[in-house]
Amino acid sequence: MGTVWRAHDERLGREVAVKELRLPDDLDAGGRAAWTARLDREARAAARLRHPGIVTVHDLVTTGDGQPWIIMDLVPGRSLADLLAEQGPLPPARAAALGLQVLDALGEAHAAGIVHRDVKPANILLEGDRVVLTDFGIAAVDGDATLTRSGALLGTPAYMSPEQVRGLPATAASDLWALGATLHTMVEGTPPFTGPATGAVLIAMATQEPAPATHAGPLAPVIRDLLHKDPTKRPPLNKTRTHLSPPPTPASTPTPTPAPASVPAPASASGSTPAPASAPASTAAPASTAAPASTAAPASTAAPASASAPASASAPATAGATASGTAGETA
Fold first, then answer.
1. Number of C-alpha atoms within 13 angstroms, CB side, residue 62?
2. Is the CB of residue 54 less than 8 Å from the CB of residue 37?
């Protein structure tokens, strides 16, 4: 419905993407107004969302000739459809990682009351490890008048849910069906329903079961459940996220390091371990020498008696001081 151009924003000095609405030449005024309203809806729907997995819309500009243009964030990458065309089917783990990012973007849109209605590989852009959902041109927005007209088929048949094909309102479960079809395409290389023309695809969708995903590995159950024809039996978004998330890595248990074996001490002759040698006994201090006994003072000479009185007896000699006791031995 449109062509996306790479452009330069001269005022802000940045690279942007500009989507031009390309209309068939045979459209009447009513048809042109309907397609213009579709582009306006895309701009308003995407502008309501702020998520790294959803393309950012900066502005909607209408030139003097009535031509509308959407100014968007430039995603310098290719689409998932281009990747599959170049490399073929993807490993299940890679498909699950991409599908998980698309699921997160859809969760943001659904929380805001927006149903994309056209999830498919061509509307999924890849920028390194980043996955961006784009083209909300036929989104169903709560509070907006529907663009569906009698006889109009809005969406890509191979990725439309069975209820959309029957003309019933699209819901969040319809986007999950389209995600299941996209996952099937990633691992198998083809959508779950194929045919030589649009009518054949629609008939197959109404009368047949989806082709088995033989290369899906662990993704086979979730793809099967998402492609259930009854929207009420499709897994909800949170359960789908659990199925697409990689299993948790078990915590590694450290290997205990054995303690070095102790070397036994050599046994003594009696078989027991000898006690450590004690410190040498201290040498006893020699006994102190006793002080020599003091020599007794000599007896004083008695004075000569007077003639009239008899001589007095002399005083006995004073005994000298005894020797002090010896010091005891030091233990």
1. 7
2. no
Q: Per-residue pLDDT tens for 262-313?
A: 655 555 544 444 444 444 444 444 444 444 444 444 444 444 444 334 444 4
In the chain, the amino acid numbered 185 is: T
Which CA distances in Å does 281 have to 188, 278, 309? 95, 8, 73
**Residue 234, class by beta-carbon neighbours within 10 Å (0-12 exposed, 13-18 middle, 19+ buried)?**
buried
pTM for this entry: 0.69
| pLDDT tens per residue, range 49-81 | 889 999 888 888 888 877 788 888 899 889 999
Q: Report the C-alpha gap between 313 and 328 in whole angstroms.
A: 44
Catalytic residue among 118, 129, 142, 225: 118
Average pLDDT, the chain: 77
- What's the confidence (pLDDT) of residue 34? 79
Residues β-bridged to residue 16: 7, 73
Instruction: Reply yes or no on whether 225 is catalytic.
Output: no
CA distance 222 to 226: 6
Coil, strand or helix at 177: helix
Given a contact cutoff of 8 angstroms between Cβ atoms, the answer to whether 288 and 329 are in contact is no
What is each CA distance from 213 to 43, 171, 180, in whole angstroms?
Answer: 35, 25, 11
Instruction: Give the DSSP letter of residue 230.
Output: S
On whether the CB atoms of residues 211 and 179 are closer than 8 A, the answer is no
CA–CA separation, 82 vs 87, rounded Å?
A: 9
CA angle 15, 69, 14 (to 5 degrees): 10
Report helix angle 172-188 to 237-244, nearest 10: 20
Q: Supply 73's token pair.
A: 């964030």
